[in-house]
Structure formats: C-alpha cells, structure tokens
Amino acid sequence: MNLGAHISISGGVYKCFARAKELGANSIQIFVKNNNRWFSKPFTYQELEKFQIEREKHQPFSVNAHNAYLINLCSPKTDIEKKSISAMKDEINRCEQLKLHYLVIHPGSHLGIGERWGINKIAQNLNRIIEEMAETKVKILLETTAGQGTNLGYRFEQLRDILDIMKYKERFGICYDTCHTFAAGYDITTTGKYQQVMNQFDKIIGLDHIHLFHLNDSKYELGSRKDRHFHIGAGYIGLEGFRALINDKRFYNIPMVLETPKGENGKMDKINLKTLRDLRK
Ligand code: MN
Ligand code: MN
Ligand code: ZN
Questions:
Q1: How many domains does the chain have?
Q2: Average pLDDT for residues 244-266, to the nearest whole number?
Q3: Termini Cα distance of the chain
Q4: Closest ligand, as measured to the CA of 227
Q5: What span, in angstroms and rounded, lies between the C-alpha atoms of 206 and 201?
Q6: Helix %, strand %, coil % for the chain, to 5?
C-alpha cells in the first residue's frame, strides 16, 4: 500500500527518509522549508546530494511537499500577495531542486472580499507563477479545504473553477483531504455515502485529477467547517469511511499520507497506519 505520513525534516531535509523507514511509511509528505516563515536559507549542494542518496537507499513510493502556511495567493493586502507569490516561487524552486513531483497548496483566503474575486485572484496568480517558471515541472495540487473562515476550496466547484482558468493544465491536480472535505459537508461515513461523494467529485472535477490523499479523521462533525484532524476511526468519519476509501481500487496507485496528531515519539502514526492497513480486504 502506498501509505505513509507527513514527516519532519528537522535537522536536515534528508532526515525524512530514515524517519519514514522507522515508521514503515513508503509515501511521505514534507515541508521544504520552515512552514511558519516566509523564507528559509537555500539548500546547499551537499544537502541536495544527501537527499538523493538517502532517497535511493530507502526508495519510497512517493515524496511530496506541502507549502508554508503563510502563503495566501488571494490576499487583498498587496504586500502579502506579493510576498506570497515570491514565497510560492521559492517553494517551487525547492521542489525542483529536490526533484519532487507534487507540491500541495491551500488555494487561499479572500478575507472578506468575496469568493468569486478570490477564485479569480488565485487563478491569475497561479497562471502568472507558472508562466514565469515555465522550465519547472512540479505539479501543484490544490488541496480540498474545510472552509474555515474565508478559506476557499471547500466546494468541489471552487476547485474546478480554478482548474478551468489554468493555462497549463498539466501542471495542476488535486489533493483530497478526508477531514477537510468531511468538515466541509461531504459525508463519507458509509460505503454508500462514500460512493456518492466520489461520484460527485468525478462529475465536477474528475477522479483522475486526484494525485494525493491526506488521510485524517475529523474532530468535528459533518459540515462544521472546522479544520481539526483526528486519529483514524476515532473521529466523526469513523472506520467505515476509511474502509471504503482504502479498498477503492481506483486509488491503489495514489499515495496517501496521514496528517494526524503524532503523539509521544510519533507513536500515534504507527497506530494510525496499522489501523488503515488492517482495513484493506
Ligand atoms: Mn494542508
Ligand atoms: Mn491536509
Ligand atoms: Zn487540515
């Protein structure tokens, strides 16, 4: 199974592989810089080399990046918008340097200006960024969100609308977060409901656009629009929903990573991964 977790890069980006191995994860997600800062020091040549050597040793199925939380591609504040664009470019460059295939991003928060405005702004900025970085390859995955505050991307239609405006369609895809979509109102608590949600996604965006899953249970109820991840099976989604997803053959080749609370020494990651593996028929 192409299963794993978000892994820390503290002490050096290459350290993610040893941690992944220790966890028994073969799909991993990392930050490519400090996720709470605008910019970090560039990678050194030695770091980049070490990253590929370690990667070769452990041969994970997939390594993807998640962008920093400060980035907002539809901030109404011009200085933040500008900073977000250059930080986003920096993220793309770092992914290229590490030779990563996917970079997950949160579409953006319109901060009260309006959803339509926000969607157009995000699309405009993404088009501009990719246009100016035509030589890069990393695919940008728009993440489904819980719709907390003024976050966009909590309806499949909003993600479709952004993708529709993209000039370089092959550079974009979707990361499906189970906690976020559930909090946004997409119920997958039974096999039947799961199928309905997937049919809906297929009609609106197309299932072949999903390149990554974030597997998180939800601490809050359906439609709460609250983004709080919880241990697999212990939240409001429950085991049945995850059983349906884990056994959906259409996604056998899609990487899936946990973003659940790690607990002491990361022991909860091990437990959550075992819970998921045990669900496979
Ligand atoms: Mn995210
Ligand atoms: Mn997520
Ligand atoms: Zn979340």
A1: 1
A2: 96
A3: 12
A4: 3
A5: 6
A6: 45, 15, 40
What is the CATH classification number for the domain harbouring 37? 3.20.20.150
**Under 8 Å between Cβ of 214 and 3:** no
Whole-number Å distance, alpha carbon 18 to ligand 2 midpoint, is 23
E strand residue ranges, the chain: 3-6, 27-31, 62-66, 102-105, 108-109, 139-143, 151-152, 172-177, 210-215, 217-218, 229-230, 256-258
User: Which-ligand-closest: CA of 183?
Assistant: 3
| Ligand 1 geometric centre to CA of 128 (Å) | 22
**pLDDT tens, residue by residue, 108-131:** 999 999 999 999 999 999 999 999
Task: Tell me the CA–centroid distance for residue 259 and ligand 3, in Å.
Answer: 8
Print the domain residue range for 108. 3-279
Q: How far is CA 116 from CA 113, 158, 203, in A?
A: 9, 9, 21
pTM over 0.90: yes
Residues with CB under 5 A from ligand 1 (ion): 143
